[in-house]
Amino acid sequence: MTGARTPVLPRDVNDPAVLDRRHMFHPGTHLADFSGGDLPSQIIAGGKGIHVTDRDGHRMIDGFAGLWCVNVGYGRTEIADAVHAQMEKLSYFHAYNGHSNEPAIELAARIAGMVGLDMNHVFYGLSGSDANETNAKIVWYYHRILGRPEKRKLIARDRSYHGSGVMSGSLTGQPGFHGLYGLPLPDVIHVAAPHYWLDGREGESERAYSRRLAQELEATIQAEGPETVAAFFAEPVVGSGGILPSPEGYWEEVQAVLRRHDVLLVVDEVVTGFGRTGEAFGSHLYGIQPDLMALAKGLSSGYLPLSASVVSDRVWDVLEEGTRRHGPFIHGWTYSAHPVCAAAALANLDIIEREGLVANARDTGAYLQRCLREALGDHPMVGEVRGVGLLAAVDFVEAREPRRFFDPARRIGARVTEVARQNGLIVRSMPKIDGIGLAPPLTLSRQDVDQIVDIVLEATHAVAAQIAPVPPSPGPAKPRDREG
Ligand SMILES: Cc1ncc(COP(=O)(O)O)c(C=O)c1O
């Protein structure tokens, strides 16, 4: 027998920090820097409530709820119990050809009840990306059944994020998701996202700005040929593209254009769904009537992966008609309607309802918005503080009047993020702005807000002091537990 030889391995081989650099292929990560050790290791070991703790015991407020998904906070025993019970009862069964399971059925009815808006059918997936892949296919199917197969083009917006798949990544309006992959796919068109602070003209009201964007959308549809334009994909609040609440009148104007040309409206509520904006859905906040909706993240608060495409009755009727003519709707995933994920989501929605987390996001969110503006609004390094509910962004500028941005190589947002982290707060250095984003769990209290704002202010002062010849004096410090 040749005998298996135990390879000679370095002594630290079982250290997770070493294995991480050797074997994990991380999304959105500079691979060479990470393998080479230039990027710090950030292993999160535990979470409870709004806090997470890293492997070295550093406890931080998670001001971004993971990736804006842990709406109910960490360590909820009732979700763990529901998952355990469901795994013992029925760990898996598929949903093809009419098969079903009770948690997924109950959840579909519950989602339809929460969404309202004549949207009564739910198709399950596991990620926001796959929900948008599904939505794109439903759009194409819909127009084909109505006898207009040439209506295929999908319009999305610059800065938008709709996922990382081949189609969802194409819809995403950020060049990093395209160039090296040869995307976007043909038939995907991008128009401007609303960013009034950045793109509004001198003397132009918010309302007039919204009208101008709607006119640009109209012009794009006309130029492409309305008979070729199938759908418009948009987030109610642009998320990773900079946390941009919609300007006044935007949805009224845009929906009028879409209706005029029979272009379906696909609303991506992956971030805004389940309370984040202070309303249950961004569509409720802005008076949007979607034809299709994408949900994920807050649906299960990230306890298990789960997404949903929610279908309006108007679209559903056409899908049913399609199957009368062509047989089964041929699309699906092995894990569509996974019973354990559905059980986690039901327990999550119980918490959201029982603890009034949508109302808390509205009230505590309004407090967060006010405190951030009061603390940072006049800071010489701050260009804009914006947000809605428990979604907020701070944009940094080198000069306010006239506005001048920092050289991106100075990484101001990333530096503020680093200082905040050392001081016990995770914020997100947003990819499309030189700034930071906040999207904490919806369980946040006013005391938590005070602590968050304090740390953000101190981090902003610290970075300003590093770069300015005369550092601005720090504002009055409130008492703070540095352990977060
Ligand atoms: C608005 C929006 N849509 C879709 C997605 C994609 O979701 P996932 O990462 O679950 O595929 C995200 C993820 O952040 C998102 O923010």
Detail the topology: elements first, then pairings:
Elements: H1 16-23, H2 31-36, E1 44-48, E2 51-54, E3 59-62, H3 65-68, H4 77-89, H5 102-115, E4 119-125, H6 128-145, E5 153-157, H7 166-171, E6 188-191, H8 196-199, H9 206-224, E7 229-234, H10 250-260, E8 264-268, H11 282-286, E9 292-295, E10 307-312, H12 313-326, H13 339-354, H14 357-376, E11 382-388, E12 391-396, H15 412-422, E13 425-426, E14 428-429, E15 435-438, H16 446-467
Parallel strand pairs: 3-13, 5-6, 5-7, 7-8, 8-9
Antiparallel strand pairs: 1-2, 2-3, 4-10, 9-10, 11-12, 12-15, 14-15
Helix pairs in contact: 4-13, 5-13, 6-12, 9-10, 14-16, 15-16
Bound molecules: pyridoxal-5'-phosphate.
The site of pyridoxal-5'-phosphate has 14 residues, from helix 6.
